[in-house]
Design goal:
- By secondary structure, this protein is mainly α.
- The longest helix is centred in the N-terminal third of the chain and has 29 residues.
- It is globular, with a radius of gyration of 23 Å.
Length: 438
């Protein structure tokens, strides 16, 4: 048994459970060895996780480096973007175990797991310098950091759908399916829903925002569910306990069982209650216009407004970021098609989706009307809001340092300008950020 065999097995075994449990005993059983045999190669579980991280960096950069170098040389910067993007998509399509690791351990890491100092620096040391790539396209595209995050968030979302639909954990995707999903995701990133720049630029964003801004503040919270949301925000959806909720609500743990059958029922009630509130709030917003494009923006700004006014609820609904609602006692996830929350934009008449060449018709998330765009849009909104929350947390920890230097910390709350860029990406993809050519 070699170190590489252990690392490969760890990706495979822990990935099946989405890293909820990183058990060395389960890993030893998979390899057919005793647990102490693992310690001959790795002194601890953290040492193994760090080795997995190094393997990811090495393998990822080795795969995309040739395409990165090609992208840096081509004069057509749109082509450069898609050369690199397609390479990243193909890598994750071929490596489901590493995709799960990247999605969970890199992008959802906690302070008590892996210490990741700087992902960009690790990749740069191996020859893939994303900062240099962004600079190379800067004259042709106006890309704020939020846009690049939306690109990778879209890639992550549809790649998760691809692997889920194809049950890739147990079935290696075919070459045909890999090429198909690579083309589909590239097309969605390239042009979004398929609107035109003229249609998007005609919108009165300030006027639409005035219809929504501040209205969520008047919504009264249920005190008990607010305590549940606070516990989830503090500990996470999988670790929040009845004891934490009892302490926050001022009730005894036994009293909570008069309201909730179990911890799982507690989380479900929180999710269902808040999702219905968000549906109602966003629909009220969308009803203020008869124009489908305005309705789309009003729905997006409504959801963002609701969640940014209730940060605990935002964290409680953060499961959307990896499209997994796994709170049933039997461990099975809910059928997403049965949750109205994930069909929030289906009532809007989005005409570009009716075109036969719309890439959304080829996604693994096709539904009857708007072919699965609602989960994608929700995923982008929640991911963007959570990123801003993380920036705010980092800003708070650095407050004293910036005060002494005179620098101003960056605000963490998502602004209306950020939401407009989010909307523009959804409607136009990266094509909405290309500079006018002379």
């Amino acid at each position: 048994m070699t170190k590489k065999e252990i690392i490969d097995a760890a990706f495979r075994v822990w990935g099946r459970d989405f890293y909820f449990h990183t058990s060395l005993s389960k890993l030893a059983s998979e390899l057919g060895v005793c647990k102490p045999a693992l310690y001959r190669h790795f002194l601890s579980k953290n040492a193994l996780l760090e080795a997995m991280l190094r393997h990811f960096y090495d393998d990822y950069t080795a795969f995309i480096l040739p395409e990165y170098e090609k992208a840096m040389k081509v004069s057509d910067k749109t082509e450069a973007i898609f050369i690199l993007t397609r390479s990243i998509i193909e890598y994750y399509a071929r490596n489901v175990d590493i995709f799960i690791f990247a999605m969970i351990k890199l992008h959802r890491q906690k302070a008590d797991t892996i210490n990741i100092s700087d992902i960009s620096e690790e990749l740069r040391n191996r020859g893939v310098d994303f900062r240099a790539f962004y600079q190379s396209i800067n004259k042709n595209y106006t890309f704020e950091p939020i846009i690049m995050r939306l690109v990778f968030t879209t890639l992550t979302f549809y790649m998760a759908g691809f692997h889920k639909a194809g049950k890739s954990i147990n079935n290696q995707p075919s070459e045909e399916s890999i090429q198909k999903i690579t083309g589909v995701i590239s097309a969605i990133i390239g042009k979004g829903l398929g609107y035109t720049i003229g249609e998007i630029d005609e919108l009165d964003y300030i006027g639409l925002e005035k219809l929504i801004t501040g209205k969520a503040d008047s919504i009264t919270d249920d005190p008990l569910l607010k305590a549940v949301a606070g516990a989830v925000a503090e500990a996470g959806p999988w670790e929040a306990s009845m004891e934490q909720v009892a302490k926050r609500s001022g009730l005894s743990k036994s009293s909570l069982y008069c309201h909730f059958k179990s911890r799982q029922d507690m989380l479900r009630q929180l999710f269902m209650t808040e999702s219905l509130r968000i549906i109602d709030f966003s629909r009220q917003g969308m009803l203020q216009s008869q124009n489908p494009l305005e309705q789309l923006y009003l729905g997006i700004i409504s959801i963002a407004e609701y969640l940014r006014s209730k940060p605990d609820i935002l964290v409680a609904l953060d499961w959307i970021r990896n499209r997994k609602l796994n709170i049933d006692p039997d461990g099975k996830s809910h059928n997403e098609q049965e949750i109205d929350f994930l069909r929030i934009f289906d009532e809007i008449d989005i005409k570009p989706l009716q075109n036969s060449d719309s890439p959304f018709r080829e996604t693994p998330l096709i539904e009857q009307k708007n072919i699965g765009i609602s989960p994608w849009i929700l995923f982008l909104i929640v991911n963007t809001l959570m990123r801003k929350n993380q920036e705010q947390a980092h800003t708070s920890s650095a407050q004293l340092r910036t005060q002494s230097s005179g620098a101003q910390p960056r605000a963490g709350k998502l602004s209306n300008e950020d939401i407009r860029m989010l909307f523009r990406f959804i409607a136009l993809g990266i094509g909405g950020f290309k500079n006018n050519e002379e």
